[in-house]
Amino acid sequence: MGKDVIVACDFDSAEQTLAFLDRFTGRKPFVKIGMELFYAEGPEIVRAIKARGHRIFLDLKLHDIPNTVRKAMKVLSALDVDMVNVHAAGTTAMMRAALEGLTREDGSRPLLIAVTQLTSTSEAVMQEELGIAGSINDTIAHYAANAQAAGLDGVVCSPLEAGLVKGACGPQFLTVTPGIRFADASADDQVRITTPARAREIGSDFIVVGRPVTQAADPVAAYQRCVQEFSLNHE
Ligand code: C5P
Question: Is 71 a catalytic residue?
């Protein structure tokens, strides 16, 4: 699967989400469905978006005992999504179980990526509250290596950490990076941000873009600008 721009559909209803996606009459964006929309609308919203021809990253960040995650992943795999995720903190045993659950009888499966440390967690909180010694960069590299050892395809991380992850796990290990803003736009509540072009240079394989597209006066034009800046037109 090549590089792509993923649009975070952070809406709380199917109606709003589908009205938003109906604007895209040309290239159909790869779409991220998060907890808010999935918990509000259930699996039906996944089927509806899939039926419109979009690829889907179902961002539910599973973290439970291996057996529960294996069985939950089997259900998600049957929904025919293209990418799902777990917390690397759930252990390599849990990540292996997730992979087993996801793999269909014909051997196909969605991409499986891991959250290393949430970008909302500071180094001080990680060390003092969560009790994880070492630097946040070392922890991210270590968790990414665990995900790779378990057979996962990549991690979610800040675009500024993409180079660190590639260095630890090699160029084929995928980096999926939120925290993207246009050079001339507001950061909103994001802190460690960069532009689509810079994210590509550092090593992002997929950029996840929410408000710069969903809140734009012209979302289709904003999406096309992301695609352009992320250089997808050259492929
Ligand atoms: O609107 P914005 O572009 O900031 O949206 C980014 C999306 O990526 C949101 O859905 C947000 O929840 C998600 N995300 C993030 N940082 C992470 C993980 C996910 O911003 N570390």
Answer: no
- Residue with the smallest CA separation from ligand 1 atom 11 is 178
Write down the pTM of the prediction: 0.94
Distance CA 85, CA 115 (A): 7
* Nearest-angstrom CA–CA distance, 123 and 211: 26
DSSP E strands, 21-118: 30-34, 56-62, 83-87, 111-115
Nearest to 177 by CA among 230, 131, 100: 230
Report the pLDDT averaged over residues 38-62. Answer: 97
Atom nearest to 8 CA in ligand 1: 10
pLDDT grade for 1, boundaries at 50, 70 and 90: low
